[in-house]
TrEMBL record:
Protein name in the entry: Glucose-6-phosphate 1-dehydrogenase
Catalytic activity: D-glucose 6-phosphate + NADP(+) = 6-phospho-D-glucono-1,5-lactone + NADPH + H(+)
Major enzyme class: oxidoreductase
Cited NCBIfam families: zwf
Binding site for substrate: 182, 186, 220, 239, 345, 350
Assigned protein family: Belongs to the glucose-6-phosphate dehydrogenase family.
Keywords: Carbohydrate metabolism, Glucose metabolism, NADP, Oxidoreductase
Catalytic residues in the record: 244 (proton acceptor)
Amino acid sequence: LPASGAVYYLFGATGDLAKRKLFPALFSLYKEGKLAEDFAVVGLARRSRTDEQFQAEVYESINEFCRYKADDAELWNRFAQHFVYMSLDINDVEGFRELTRLSEKLDERFDIPGNRLFYLALAPELFGPVSFNLRDGGLLESKGWHRVVIEKPFGYDLPSAQKLNDQINQVFKEEEIFRIDHYLGKEMVQNIEVIRFANAFFEPLWNNKHIANVQITLSETVGVEDRGGYYDKSGALRDMGQNHMLQMLTMIAMEPPSRLHGEDIRDEKVKVLRSLRQYETFEDVRKNVVRGQYSEGVHKGKPLPGYRQEESVAGDSVTETYFAAKVAVDNFRWAGVPFYIRTGKRLPVKTTEVVIEFQNMPNNVLFASRHNLAPNLLVIRVNPMEGIYIKINAKQPGSDTQIQPVAMEFCQSCQVGINTPEAYERLIYDAARGDSTYFTRWDEVSHAWAFVDKIAAAWHDDTSDIRPYPAGSWGPTEASDLLKQDGFRWWPVN
Ligand code: BG6
């Protein structure tokens, strides 16, 4: 079903996110009939552009980044005429009044019933001022619905996130606020619920009686690229930990919701976040969290600079580009099961994987005395490969005694003709339909910050534990010790 007609306001329309993700997502939705003809997109940024120049930029972005090409001229022309551009100083309410007048014209031209979706791809300190000016400039007075989509980072810590939220709340109600965590838009992250709750194989075993540990890896090969200015103040814990990693952890750990409705699912996720054991002391943090920073190294024969040599990064920076943590979910289901999470820049491969390691078979006379049985694994591959596989033990053909682990695999991304929607397509479509299931609610955000802030505070006081690791390697060796002391190891990613 197409989303109901609306004007989409892209704040930050000349930025990287619009180019790489938002324009392509809108085009894919249009091509698949999920946007009918009753919509308009207003590009907003300070720079001046004509509508034609803006449309030309959208065209380039689609041909470079979209999973569909704009090669059908008729379709492209129809799509492009929905795009207009307005140069806007976001501190000047007069500009917003002009935007209101423009919106009324667009409503009429495209037969839109006054619905307005504001997409803020802006620095967080602008969320408040823009919200106020939307209100004061008359944009919220139209007849239809009003929704605001907010990009990460949602604050820097709990107090700053709280302040942002208070500002936005003066203008929008919680159900009108759609906080993006693009990992929640990924097919395989959404698939976690189905794998868990639609399979008799898994749900009965999904607890501390059968699962030995859970491992979540988000590794990237890129360095900080041209985002040094932002990243050096943020670091891996805030950039990936507070949001994507904790969100994936909640999807793995949550109780079955009473229904598959947004609020029910988010209620269950919040319960997980409330069950996270907080690291209270400096020693707790030292024992359970490892951080690292990449130094010079080599990847596929190519020499790579260290983090401190990157553009806009301080020469003596102590920002972490890697962290690994042992996380405990202190509730009935998970008591005693460690969740190990790790993420880093400049690691050897780009991948996101969740590994569920099952407990070993009881030591029995049949096999265990003669063989070291490998544990069963369930591996959920989120990106760039999408799929799942399980590792089970089987007899080696031709031998009476040898047992070997074999993999049974479902590779979604290998299937011919499967062209899975990008995260942003799904999320924009959901926001336009008013479905906030895969957006983060304020209580999720605040609990996640509370957890992360404790770690950040301990790190702030003493930076002696930050470990350099060569770019292109798997991070500091201390990250392996986190598991070794519990009798486990990181399973190699594929
Ligand atoms: C973003 C982070 O949220 O996620 C980036 O700010 C990171 O630092 C990116 O590179 C990774 O996303 P994906 O979808 O490419 O895995």
